[in-house]
Amino acid sequence: MNLLFLTFLFPLVGFLILAFGRGRISENTAAVVGVGSLGLSFLSAIWVGSQFLLHPPAGGAYSQVLWTWMSVDSFHAPFALRLDGLSLTMMGVITGVGFFIHLFASWYMRGEEGYERFFSYMNLFVASMLFLVLADNLLFLYFGWEGVGLCSYLLIGFYYKDPANGYAARKSFVITRVGDTFMAIGLFLLFRELGTLNIQEILTLAPQHWQVGNATCELAAILLLLGAVGKSAQLPLQTWLPDAMAGPTPVSALIHAATMVTAGVYLIARTHTIFQLAPIALELVGVVGAVTLLIACFSALVQTDIKRILAYSTMSQIGYMFLALGVGAWSAAIFHLMMHAFFKALLFLAAGGVINACHHEQDIFKMGGLRKQLPVAYASFWIGGAALAALPLISAGFYSKDEILWEALASHHMWLLAAGVLGAFLTPIYTFRLIFVAFHGEAKLQAHRGQGVSYWLPLVVLMVLSTFIGALIHPPLANVLPASPGEAGGHGKETLALISGSLSIIGILIAAGLFLGERKLVTAIANTGPARLLRRWWFYAWGFDWLYRWLFEKPFLALVAINRRDLVDFTAGIIPAVARWSHDILSATENGRVRWYAASIAAGAIAVMAAMMLA
Amino acid sequence: MSSSIQTVAEHWSLAVYLGAVGLLCAFMLGVSYLLGGRDWGRAKNEPFESGVSSVGGARLRFSAKFYLIAMFFVIFDVEALFLYVWAVSLREAGWTGYIEAVVFITILLIGLVYLWRIGALDWAPESRRRKMQASKMTHIKEAE
Amino acid sequence: MTLNEQQFIALLPILITGATTVVVMLAIAFARNHWWNATLTVAGLNLALASIILAARVAPQTVTPLLVIDGYSCFYMALILVITLACATLAHAYMEDFAGNREEIYLLLTLAASGAMVLVSSRHMASLFIGLELLSVPIYGMVAYTFRNHRSLEGGIKYMVLSAAASAFLLFGMALLYAHSGTLSFKGLSGQFHMAGLHSPLLVVGALMILIGLGFKLSFAPFHMWTPDVYEGAPAPVGAFLATASKTAVLAVLVRFLLEASAENELAMREAMGVIAFLSILVGNFLALTQTNIKRLLGYSSIAHLGYVLVAVVAANHLESEAVAMYLVTYIATTLGAFGVVALMSDAGRLHDADAIFNYRGLFWRRPYLTAVLTVMMLSLAGIPLTAGFIGKFYVIAAGVDAKLWWLLGALVVGSGVGLYYYLRVVVALYLPEPGMVQHDARLDWGQRAGGIMVLALAAVVLIVGIFPQPIIDLIRDAGITALHLS
User: Fold this and answer.
1) pTM for the full predicted model
2) Coil, strand, or helix at residue B13?
3) Closest Cα in chain C to A79
4) Segment C106-160, tens digit of pLDDT
5) d(CA C9, CA A387)
6) Same structural domain, A454 and A589
């Protein structure tokens, strides 16, 4: 287990090699380094994980002090990694899914300009993400948090020649930064109140320090939630995720589906004690999740861009995770996180295959009939889509989503349950709308089939994991996260499973009815007046961008315009003015004359001594 | 109170000494003023040689070599002083002293060798010597 | 008073450095060959560095009443030898195209190094003075080494004249101390300071005069005036030596004097140092504000940095010597690197060094790695986290907070803020578009030559110390530097 540090060391070294070898190494070398580093990282994660599971360490957690950054007087800053069931799960997802996505990317990005640049960013991302989940300290977690944010920014704007991509990158950066700022304030608050940022110390100190419902604790929890919300694209900071699809598709798969966007879920699960002490904040988590999941579902119904549909589905699935956290079903949230990583990575990679095959066409209505041309992608979409739609029994998504709905019921959160069930009904509709429109019907364009092991292997592996086989993996969370309300079981579980399962099947059937074949009915409905309005409204994701433009951007710009002369800056300008003025006076003394210098020494000496003698 | 008396007691001799110095200066100046002869003239007001007319400027050009040689003399002379001290206490210093003196002399010698090799001891600068040699060669050639 | 074997071993580093001077002198007399003479120097210095391991094993040893070789002096001797080695490598690159005698600079360098080593191991006013002069006199020569450049000559003469004035203060201070106590050893003075304290003006004035004399060499305000002129005039490798070795040795002996002679128990001493630190920080930073000459800028910055480190001395708590050592390590690595880049960009064959910030404009597009090095150095000077400079500053602040020196810490914060401005100005210039004409440039193969490798290694050190400072901290503790407090 002491090889733990290797997991993020390999990607880091890979990043350094790629970053410094830029322009000097061939595509093949870059692919070997970029994918190989992840492979080695994955292997060490497997090794560490098997060690952890075979010989569970005392207390259910293993921590490795890599080095003491500084130890001065009473100040100690050890740099330690901590591995427990939660971080092990995350590590497994990041390195495992990450490895297959890298492998796929080596095929997908072939021939693109900046191939090694792409892999250097990806490696750096994986290193930062591992740093985030392995940190035993909120400060280091924050460091990794910002690291993944940076990589996300760099990769969204990967095709920087198109200004729109740069805009999307900046948008995601700025919006997540809003969340990060709140989170930083939350960390300050925690440090002020508890005097430490070590996660374990916080988790033990918080219950001693605070009563349940303590206002400060609520505030800290809400600030952390805002940070999580920004990173995980939940209401109200969700608007960046669809635009983030401007990046290459493997990026969307890795960062904007499988790993980074779930960091918010991880953060809340990690600091669950604080949320348990703050019932209002916890309730808020569930509400945010429920509202986001519905909003995203409706938006996904009317999108035409294959990646945007998936982006909205990601948003809604993370909504499910937040909902689970909100009802206290910590393990269920993480379980769903893992399943989601499998099937959403699969969907994105398959979408990448489709996009690549269709000469970078992303509009599903321009595709059609791809079923025969791209059988692997078709199969992937079916299996991934089934998991997303939570098709009963055979799909991975069913088990995790059902768990969440059951927990909502068991904890008597009826409104949240209702939202979850509605979402479970809408999800198959938009998912299979995508599949039926893009893969069935008549062929509209000539697709060229992808080949090579790096194309089909990741898809096949993820396909297997997205079926019920994936759901057999049970994350070892028992020691880390508290028991959830519905763990003991109870009646109604089977009924609920039955309802949600049949809703899923009904949803698929509705999608089939609407979008298979001629699509007359759906066109007719869609062209009625109110439906058009609704469609437009949903297409622009409930107009949040517009709302924020009027709520924040315009008033801000107006304020800026009023403050053209900048009063604040005027007062702030006094400081440099004073500095300049002192500089001018002082530099007049540097006149280059030795006699003046000697005199100044003497005068200084006399002044110092006179002052001391008189004092 | 007693401390001030003590201070006075400690410092009265100094005060007397200072007074005596002042008096002596005043006496010498005063006596020469009273007894000395008085002459008036323009040249008398010149600062140089009090009355003897100066010839030429005071700014003579010495060769920089004089300074160099003088400096070498001072350095080696001062360093040789240490050897006098050693010579006086030769027996007391014993073998340790002997070794130290040998080291010292060796360093001095190496310094001398260095000065000799870099041409610091040559009177004429290297460039002029080369010119001289060249002209000598031409003389010889002419003679041939 | 004979020398036994152990004392001889303890003295080896100084002896070997001295012998190196003699051997190099002979070698020059034998054959003037730049590469050969430089290699000999470097070999001798490395030998001296290795002998410190032996010396540290027998430490502490008092050798005659004048010198003591203990962990403290071993640590600083090692630092000084490393600096000298770095400067010798830089000088080799720099002197390549010099028209006059290129080899004598190594003589001066090793002589100054032995002076600095005597200084850090002195425990007596006499050896302090000898060491100081042995350090300073070769530096006058080195500053004026490229004497055809009138700034160099001017700098050398200014430094010599003003140093003499400062030495007068120092000597007078010693005389006063001797007049009061009849002893000149630090330990002997310690008793005097304990007994007499504030009541003896002779003692206080004497100690203050010593502070002034040493403060001149450390370019504390208000004795700092010479610094920019001399730094500007000095050839870049010499500037590096002046900014690092000279400051290190003098500061080390100042701290030893303050601790061993218990002079810092004296409130007046601490107050005076506080005022000096305060002035140095503000004056140094404000003077550098709009400076366009990078060597002058580094000169001003050294005034400010020595002010920072004096804060730790004023704190006079258990962290003092550790903080000073740590700060000096980070400051040395950084300043050597910065001067190193200047030295690599310049060569003595030209009349002027590449010292205008303008000469560095757009360097990134020509020499990306050299630019990276200079960027790291500037960030470290500004004290950005994850560089060595931050660790040093952190130590100083920790010591200052511990002693509750809020007004000095306030000055430190203001100074750092101002510092950020002018350090970043250099960094910005590096990445601007290139101007049309390039006046100065590093050689194409700078990275494969000794000077270039040394500068790259320094950049690595600055980063590693910034990220992973604990080994250095442990080294400083193991060296027994903190033991001075107990004695």
Assistant:
1) 0.76
2) helix
3) C468
4) 999 999 999 999 999 999 999 999 999 999 999 999 999 988 888 899 999 999 9
5) 77
6) no
